[in-house]
Specification:
The protein is built from 7 helices and 5 strands; from the N terminus they run ββαβαβαβαααα. The protein has 173 residues and is α/β, with parallel strands linked by helices. The chain folds into 2 domains: 3-106, Periplasmic binding protein-like II (D-Maltodextrin-Binding Protein, domain 2); 120-172, no CATH class. It has a 5-stranded mixed sheet with strand order 3-2-4-1-5.
Length: 173
Amino acid sequence: MPRYLWPLVCLALIAIPPSASAEGTVNVLYAGSPVNLMERSVGPAFTNASGEQFRGYAGGSNKIANEIKGELRRGDIFISANPKVDEQLMGTAGGDWVRWYILFAESPLVIGYHASSKFAADFKTKPWYDVLAEPGIKIGRTDPKLDPKGAFTVELLALQLPGIKSRSQAARS
């Protein structure tokens, strides 16, 4: 599978003393990608099965990792959207926050567009990369410094549409 389609969700146990959470509460820090899954399925199922309170916090994986490193946020479990984020928290250099992780799901990058967009017909008849290269199209993404999906989107565009990078840089100046 190409790297830009490889935003894997990783589960990492954080090496935090048991006193980090209130008795009967499990604090779970997770990427924004699985927020609905965590809040509507996993959290309630965990609470029903264990009797423990599930307390979740969603955010960009890199943002949460930086908060963990800076000791601004603590959790019992950290679920990121990229194994590289977990690796940054491992070992002495990473603060020994993560001791192990396991890959358990993946989430593809998708292109969404509004049916009334002036580019909608093009998305139905042309290759996606041609449509994204058309003048006037606006591409939304998360901040690549805070969220792996934003970084994967930037990487995808750089690989598939090198002209987009120079156009977007020109638009910012």
